Automatic annotation (TrEMBL):
Pfam families linked: Impact_N, RWD
Residue ranges annotated for the RWD domain, each copy included: 17-119
Keyword Lipid biosynthesis: no
Organism this protein belongs to: Echeneis naucrates (Live sharksucker)
Compartmental location: Cytoplasm
UniProt region (Disordered), positions on chain: 295-317
Source taxon at top rank: Eukaryota
Assembly description: Interacts with GCN1; prevents the interaction of GCN1 with EIF2AK4/GCN2 and inhibits EIF2AK4/GCN2 kinase activity. Interaction with RPL39; this interaction occurs in a GCN1-independent manner. Associates with ribosomes; this interaction occurs in a GCN1-independent manner. Associates with actin; this interaction occurs in a GCN1-independent manner.
Name listed for the protein in its UniProt record: RWD domain-containing protein
InterPro entries per record: Impact (IPR023582), Impact_N (IPR001498), Impact_N_sf (IPR036956), Ribosomal_Su5_D2-typ_SF (IPR020568), RWD_dom (IPR006575), UBQ-conjugating_enzyme/RWD (IPR016135), UPF0029_Impact_CS (IPR020569)
Length: 317
């Protein structure tokens, strides 16, 4: 009797071979975070003297990668925001679609490196320490530290980001009232979403607005309820405002909202706000959720005060 080929074993063998190759190619830049959980990261640089840009690619390899699912990833780079982040994410997704079923990590790493080189060459003065980062973020100083807590959330569903859903329309986007404090302005945006593809469409639509695209940070979080699995697909993004996305997702969890995403744009005014910035982000997010009828439980969110344990964020995709 012929041996029955187990696709899972084939995928695992492909992953082992790919990781061995990447470790050999990239040396100390390649890091095994948790081999049992198939979690890895790699530090990528433009390889240019001045200006030199770097990014950290964090990866989880699902059991059915590479045969039927893409790697789950996020890119940490304090200078990478808005349209540029979306552009890079789109290029990685295009590479996956073009090479579906094949090992993709080497192509992704080199595509990111190519992006860094292009960014360095076209913006000589755009060094990481000179981009639009607030002093508050510089004090935090942990933008490039790998954090995989949110990547662990419903990883079995994250392949839905790659599904071809060209027939989907951009969900209606609501814009809430801004909050201004010491020249910093925070404005929430809300959209109903039922698929990860719609999350991406909403972000792209918001970035078409030049004012929103120019925001210092566009922090977001979403929760989608998967009826068939009775579980949530949820994620968040700091966009450089360290820990803000996790706090925002924590708010959505406390309010038990579903099938919605909230984006909070912050325009930094040059004066440090300290912890008040997190209060404003959550307050304006809670306000728009109440205004749009997703919850009336504002008191519960207020009591949380951002003091309970929160999931940290990327951060994507």
């Amino acid at each position: 009797m012929a041996d029955v080929v187990n696709p899972e074993n084939e995928d695992l063998q492909s992953q082992i071979e790919e990781v061995e190759a990447l470790s050999s190619i990239y040396g100390d830049e390649w890091c095994v975070v948790d081999e049992a959980s198939r979690i890895f990261c790699i530090k990528i640089s433009s390889n240019l003297e001045e200006p030199k840009l770097t990014a950290c690619l964090q990866i989880i390899l699902p059991p059915d990668y590479p045969s039927t699912a893409p790697p789950i990833y996020q890119i940490n780079a304090a200078w990478l925001r808005g349209p540029e982040r979306a552009k890079l994410a789109n290029s990685l997704e295009d590479l996956y679609v073009e090479n579906m079923g094949e090992s993709i990590l080497f192509l992704w790493v080199e595509k990111i490196r190519e992006f860094l080189v292009e960014k360095s060459q076209t913006s000589e003065s755009d060094q990481p320490e000179k981009v639009n980062i607030t002093t508050e973020e510089k004090v935090d100083g942990d933008e490039d530290i790998p954090d995989f807590s949110t990547l662990r959330l419903n990883t079995e569903n994250l392949h839905l980001f790659m599904e071809n859903a060209n027939d989907e329309e951009v969900p209606p986007i609501k814009h809430g009232n801004p909050i201004t404090d010491r020249r910093s302005t925070f404005q929430p945006h809300l959209a109903p979403v039922v698929t990860p593809r719609q999350v991406k469409m909403v972000l792209e639509k918001l970035c078409e607005n030049k004012k929103i695209a120019s925001a210092t940070h566009n922090i977001y979080a979403y929760r989608i309820y998967c009826e068939d699995k009775h579980s949530f697909l949820q994620d968040c993004e700091d966009d450089g405002e360290t820990a803000a996305g996790g706090r925002l997702l924590h708010l959505l969890q406390i309010l038990d909202v579903r099938n919605v995403m909230v984006v909070v744009s912050r325009w930094y005014g040059g004066i440090l706000l300290g912890p008040d910035r997190f209060k404003h982000i959550n307050n304006c997010a809670r306000n728009i959720l109440v205004e749009e009828g997703y919850t009336s439980s504002s008191d519960e969110a207020t009591r949380s005060g951002g003091k309970t344990k929160r999931p940290k964020c990327k951060k994507t995709k």
